[in-house]
Amino acid sequence: MDSLPSASFTGNQVYIQLLMLAYNLVNLFRRLRLPKQHSRHPVTTLRHLLLALPALVEHTADGILLHFAGHGPHVKPLPFIIDRTRRWLLAPGSGPPTPQPTWRPVPARS
């Protein structure tokens, strides 16, 4: 927040509120969904670990199937995060289940 994007007070106020909301959502995700050893990573590390992953998307009769590489820093935390998020979304009383993406590592090529 060294430089604000707008010359108007209201525009800067909205910008700061959106930054605070994003910050709180990332911290909530860290606290509730990540394993303990990854819960203190900075945002850039989380982005590379969880979001900047190459994958193949396959549409099947059962839903969406994601094919990730079978090696790399995401191999251990990603199934844990997907499982915890799935259980949270399908908690009792949360409505009918919807098809969820399936994670399967693809063996490394030699």
Structure summarized in a few sentences:
The protein has helices at residues 9-33, 43-51, 77-89; strands at 55-60, 63-69, 102-106. It is of the alpha+beta class.
Query: Structural class given helices, strands, pairing?
Result: alpha+beta
Low-confidence parts: none
User: What is the tally of helical segments?
Assistant: 3
Order of helices and strands: HHEEHE
Query: What oligomeric state is this?
Result: single chain
What is the averaged pLDDT score?
78
Query: Largest sheet, described in full?
Result: 3 strands, mixed
Q: How much of the polypeptide forms β-strand, as a percent range?
A: 15-25%
Overall 3D shape: elongated
Cα-based radius of gyration, to the nearest Å: 18 Å
- The spatial strand order of the largest sheet comes to 1-2-3
How would you explain this protein's 3D organization?
There is one protein chain. 43% of the residues lie in helices and 16% in strands. A three-stranded mixed beta sheet has the order 1-2-3, with helices on one face. The chain is built from three helices and three strands; from the N terminus they run H-H-E-E-H-E. The protein is an alpha+beta fold. The chain has a domain at 54-106. Strand 1 and strand 2 form a beta hairpin.
Secondary structure layout plus pairing:
Elements (H helix, E strand, L loop, with lengths): L8 H25 L9 H9 L3 E6 L2 E7 L7 H13 L12 E5 L4
Parallel strand pairs: 2-3
Antiparallel strand pairs: 1-2
